[in-house]
Specification:
Elements lengths: L17 E10 L8 E7 L10 E2 L2 E3 L2 H10 L5 H18 L13 H9 L4 H8 L9 E6 L9 E9 L14 E7 L1 H9 L7 H10 L5 H8 L6 E2 L2 E5 L2 E5 L10 E3 H6 L1
Parallel strand pairs: 1-6, 5-8
Antiparallel strand pairs: 1-2, 1-4, 2-3, 2-7, 5-6, 9-10, 10-11
Helix pairs in contact: 1-2, 5-6
Length: 264
């Protein structure tokens, strides 16, 4: 039997890791069944996860820390900045405003365009006199894969219930090519059929999300497990090479053939 190598300490980050955030947005399905999740397909020209289906999100910008200090009362600054980044990136990438109760649906497009044009979120909030509801984001994971790629991201994962909206969601074409809603199980099935590509962290989190039927049950599930830094490691096991994650963080699948990971 091969001993499992020790996992990294929670705050042990690879050199040069870039703070980032991603947001799992869940809504009831029209026909019943498990909640649907908003997914975006990354452009094939992107340096990271090109062509893969992922949750909305992106890197944490300096202004996100300022917004977190102003509006994330009681939330750790790094965690708060990641929540702000998840909110901002989701609005920029999809046109969906989450955690922003004062932003009317008819104002979303204008604010989105202002952000894409470079206006700081802190300036927009100050001019409007709005607050943002960072407390509505449920933290459930933190991943920092160190695969020697061009960029290494220290990504905090949050879940949130989708607000009601009537406008069509659209991708920001510089980064994404497609947007859709699907349950975690359906997205995994699409990946298994080869219809979409999912990277290792996305697959593991979709498998975890598939354990719950809706946002409220997933929130309850997430509270049962600590949020610890996950840096997958390679291990020889059962005659093959596998990519592994810790077994105590709520994931139903904690290893995968390295060859399958590379193909995915």
């Amino acid at each position: 039997m091969i001993d499992t190598p020790p996992t990294p300490l929670p705050e042990t980050l690879p050199d040069g890791a870039i703070p980032a955030a991603t947001l799992v947005i869940m809504r009831p399905a029209d026909g019943g069944g498990p909640d649907e999740i908003l997914m975006v397909k990354r452009s094939t020209t992107m340096a990271f996860a090109a062509g893969a289906v992922v949750f909305p999100g992106g890197r944490v910008d300096p202004d996100d820390y300022r917004v977190a200090r102003l509006y994330g009362l009681g939330i750790d600054e790094a965690d708060g900045a990641a929540r702000v980044a998840a909110l901002r990136e989701t609005l920029e990438e999809t046109g969906l405003a989450v955690g922003w109760p004062g932003l009317a649906e008819g104002e979303v497009a204008e604010v989105r365009q202002a952000l894409l044009a470079g206006t700081l979120l802190s300036d927009i909030l100050a001019a409007r006199g709005d607050r943002i509801a960072l407390e509505s984001f449920v933290p459930f994971a933190r991943w920092c894969p160190n695969f020697k790629e061009a960029r290494t991201f220290d990504t905090r994962f949050f879940a949130v219930a989708s607000p009601q909206h009537n406008h069509e969601l659209t991708v920001e074409e510089a980064e994404h090519s497609h947007i859709f809603w699907a349950s975690a199980k359906d997205t995994l099935a699409m990946a298994d059929r080869g219809e979409v590509s999912v990277i290792f962290p996305t697959r593991r989190n979709l498998e975890r999300l598939a354990l719950s039927t809706d946002f409220h049950s997933f929130s309850a599930h997430s509270r049962q497990f600590p949020v610890e830094l996950i840096t997958p490691w390679i291990e020889e096991r059962d005659g093959g090479t596998r990519l592994c994650i810790p077994e105590h963080l709520g994931y139903p699948v904690t290893s995968e053939s390295f060859e399958r990971v590379r193909r995915g």
